Amino acid sequence: MNVTASIPVVLYIATACASVSEVHPGNTNAPRQTLARWDYKLRRSLVDKNKESKPGTLSYMNPNRGKTTAATDLGLSIGYVPSVAVDDRIQWEYRLGVEHHKNTAPEKTQDTTLYGAAAIAIVGDLVDDGYSWLPSLALKYKVDDELGAKSWMQSLDLAVANKSLRLGVVHDVAGVGVLFEPTFGAEYEQFTDGGALGSSGQVGRGYAAINLLVLPLYRRTVDDKSLGERIQINTSYQYWADFAESTAIDTGQDDHELFQTGLRFFLDEDLNFGIGLDFVDGENPSEGKPSQQYIQLSLLVKV
């Protein structure tokens, strides 16, 4: 990560829709009795790397130097959730969609589109079993117009919720809610056209992420029952390590990092609308996001 980079300010609009893998910070993620249904989501990506939904973004960036730029991170998908009996220990969700990531900054240009399918599951019951597994499997076709590269990407992620280990569950610590959520996984990218990266070839990446959500007023007040969830401090760190890279492909350095931290305030009890202020530093090889650093002021929408 480049800590000496200039820091622009970003204003963006964010949109997302609820699904089986998205929960309020204080809720369990155990399967519940449901009827089969179809839904749609507009958010950052087809599959999140953790339970918390990541909103899609339309960004206006005003850097310390250079001209102003625009950026988008949007994912649109349609999903099918099969029916689940009250005593079932697994809930599946299947999705088809497309996501687009673009940045017009002269030195950090990005223009990536991914078409994909995903299967997401919640296995186990936090109430009865004390734990849940959250695996997801995705297949995406990636088109990087900036590099002229095309590739197929397969990924497998796993998050764990465990009451005794205090993972994936909000705990009250002296009136402050704390959610600690690690995620692990791997992805394999097969280039059919390497473009500026070289000829056809492949690269594998090991993946790890840590997400820390702090709710300063988690011990809810009498006047506003949801206040404890509406004020949030969110910090995440993501790390990728390349392996099995073809000699014909050059994806740059073999280690990739992305750090983000910020404050969010939701305006309503259902956490549909809010504002946020975040600091972002690093890169995302899965989305073709080059290394950069900025502060963003956010309008948040999750409906």
Please describe what this structure looks like.
The structure is a single chain. Strands 1-3-4-5-6-7-8-10-11-12-13-14-15 form a 13-stranded mixed β-barrel. The longest helix has 4 residues, at 227-230. The protein has a single domain, classed as Porin (Beta Barrel), CATH 2.40.160. It has 303 residues and is mostly beta strands. Mean pLDDT is 79; it is low at 2-24. The two termini are 33 Å apart. It has one helix and 15 strands, in the order E-E-E-E-E-E-E-E-E-E-E-H-E-E-E-E. Helices cover 1% and strands 58% of the residues. The chain is globular.
Radius of gyration (Å): 19 Å
Low-confidence stretches: 2-24
For the biggest β-sheet, the strand order reads 1-3-4-5-6-7-8-10-11-12-13-14-15
Largest sheet: 13 strands, mixed, barrel
Q: Remind me, CATH topology?
A: Porin
Query: Proportion of β residues?
Result: over 45%
Helix content: under 10%
Give the helices and strands as they follow along the chain. Answer: EEEEEEEEEEEHEEEE
CATH class: Mainly Beta
How many DSSP H or I helices? Answer: 1
Distance between the termini: 33 Å
What value does the average pLDDT take? 79
Number of domains: 1
- Tally of DSSP β-strands: 15
Give me the CATH architecture, please.
Beta Barrel
Question: In summary, what is this structure?
Answer:
The protein has 303 residues and is an all-beta fold.
Describe the SSE topology.
Elements (H helix, E strand, L loop, with lengths): L8 E7 L21 E7 L12 E7 L6 E13 L8 E14 L6 E14 L7 E14 L4 E14 L8 E3 L2 E18 L7 E15 L11 H4 E13 L11 E12 L6 E12 L4 E13 L2
Parallel strand pairs: 1-15
Antiparallel strand pairs: 1-3, 2-4, 3-4, 4-5, 5-6, 6-7, 7-8, 8-10, 9-10, 10-11, 11-12, 12-13, 13-14, 14-15
